[in-house]
């Protein structure tokens, strides 16, 4: 007999990226966690906020967002807005173009991890497992450093 959690009891992961292919791949990477998490996707920061406002996202626990999305709100602005209403949400930023100012702002928001493209996708499930286990933030690292900190 298989026991599955009710959708409303599972924690939610919200994936936000303006590239549908990236969203599909991220969702596939997280499929082994489907017994524990509900995964939601949005193609922009504005859509993510609307989904939250409308109650479409249940029990938000982790936000995974791209930094640069066009047009509209970037990932840092989305993180800031979410922290205002949900201070306990784990923030994971995915980017191919990190900057010191982005890192500083993300750190001030209480960000959990910054994953660098293209290796970010392979690190995502492990990073989420760390968040669930309440491990310390891994901060801003190169993919090699992230890998060593996750082991």
- Helicity, in percent? 25-40%
Question: Shape, please?
Answer: globular
Secondary structural class: alpha/beta
Mean pLDDT: 81
Kindly give the count of domains: 1
Which percent range describes the beta-strand content?
Answer: 15-25%
Q: Which spans have pLDDT < 50 for at least 5 consecutive residues?
A: 1-5, 140-151
CATH superfamily annotation: Response regulator
The N- to C-terminal Cα distance equals 34 Å
Please state the CA-atom Rg, rounded to the nearest Å: 14 Å
Describe the largest sheet. 6 strands, parallel
Level-2 CATH architecture: 3-Layer(aba) Sandwich
CATH top-level class: Alpha Beta
Number of helices: 6
Order of helices and strands: EHEHEHEHEHEH
Q: Give the total of beta strands.
A: 6
- The spatial strand order of the largest sheet comes to 2-1-3-4-5-6
CATH fold field value: Rossmann fold
Structural summary, described in words:
This protein is of the alpha/beta class. It has one domain: Response regulator (Rossmann fold, 3-Layer(aba) Sandwich). The protein has six helices and six strands; from the N terminus they run βαβαβαβαβαβα. It has a six-stranded parallel β-sheet, sandwiched between helices. Helix 5 links the parallel strand 5 and strand 6. Helix 2 runs parallel beside helix 3 and helix 5 packs parallel to helix 6. The chain is globular. The N terminus and C terminus are likely disordered.
